[in-house]
Amino acid sequence: MASPPILLPMTAADIPDMAKATAEAFLVDRQTIMKGYGGDKYDMKQETYNSAPGYITNWKVVYMKAVHSETGETMGTCAWGFRGLQPEEVPHLPGTEASKIGPEVMKKLADEKKAHAPVEEEQKVKDGIARLNNESGEDLNDWMEKMMPDGTRCMYIVGLTVVPKFQRQGVSKALLKWGTDTADRLGLWIWVHSSEGARTAYEAAGFKPIGVWSVDLDEYAPVSVPPEHDHDKSGKWGRYTITYLSYGKGRWVPE
């Protein structure tokens, strides 16, 4: 039986590899695939370059990686957000970078980000994707306002990624167990905004569904579904459902 992965803090040097892995992990996600055909050329790799440096330097976020106990390979990552806690209460892992990312690393990340920047195309192509992003963003913001008003003490998952070749090897289980154990110890509850593919992993870790946001992707699609992505031979992108889940006992109770 393989040893469980070792949990270590993410560093700036890890970002390029994890940006690539995140993009690969979402190659099977229908919403992400569809967005990739839009004018903005939605790219999970670029999204990681945009967000990861902020996670590393934000004291309200514990950004960790699961490392193979024998090879040292990074198997996955999880970014945990903390709401309503004081800096000394946030349980950062030993070795967490406490200062700003150095200028040399920032320049390298900026160069990588620029290399993957999207090329603007006709506005009519990206209108549907922009509308989808706006509507999904509004729904997420509504949930955030309901669940995390001023004074709330809780945890939330900013992002969870498992490197494709390490999927179904207990990586998400180890990353999520750190969070649920932490919540239990600190008397906090957790919530997450989950993609379709990740829902079962959260439920296996003890999370319970509290709401959904479902959308017909064909109403926003810039192109018809290509044959290689038309797995059910329907000729449609189909419906996509975001699930909101929570863990533990907290102030927020679903209606």
Automatic annotation (TrEMBL):
<dbReference type="InterPro" id="IPR000182">
    <property type="entry name" value="GNAT_dom"/>
</dbReference>
<dbReference type="GO" id="GO:0016747">
    <property type="term" value="F:acyltransferase activity, transferring groups other than amino-acyl groups"/>
</dbReference>
<dbReference type="InterPro" id="IPR016181">
    <property type="entry name" value="Acyl_CoA_acyltransferase"/>
</dbReference>
<dbReference type="InterPro" id="IPR052523">
    <property type="entry name" value="Trichothecene_AcTrans"/>
</dbReference>
<feature type="domain" description="N-acetyltransferase">
    <location>
        <begin position="80"/>
        <end position="232"/>
    </location>
</feature>
<protein>
    <recommendedName>
        <fullName>N-acetyltransferase domain-containing protein</fullName>
    </recommendedName>
</protein>
<dbReference type="Pfam" id="PF13673">
    <property type="entry name" value="Acetyltransf_10"/>
</dbReference>
